[in-house]
Amino acid sequence: MPKNKKWSREKIHDRFSSMLKADGTPMSRQQIHMLRKKAQGLCLTCGEPAVGVYCLKHTIAARERMRKKLKYQRRLHNSSSYLLEKAKKTKVKGKAKKTGAKKKK
After folding, report:
1. Whole-structure pTM over 0.70, yes or no?
2. How many CB atoms are closer than 10 A to CB 37?
3. Which domain does 88 fall in, by range?
């Protein structure tokens, strides 16, 4: 292997590239990657467009995970994740009805 190896990709130089943690140690590449995704408005887990920090699918998963961890029985139906979930379900049902009507003809 030659000593003067060129990498196939240039290093990214942006506001996140040489960030330090509060204690002065450098941030890991994973933390920097998450900060870049968050700044672009993408889900931290999958890269889909985000609703806050995560996409709708991962927001719902985080909500249910925390309900289980904190042993909550009640649901806060006016929270944003429930309202967005409900809006998406009604949107999907509306599309299913339209396509179903076309198939009957």
Report:
1. no
2. 17
3. 29-96
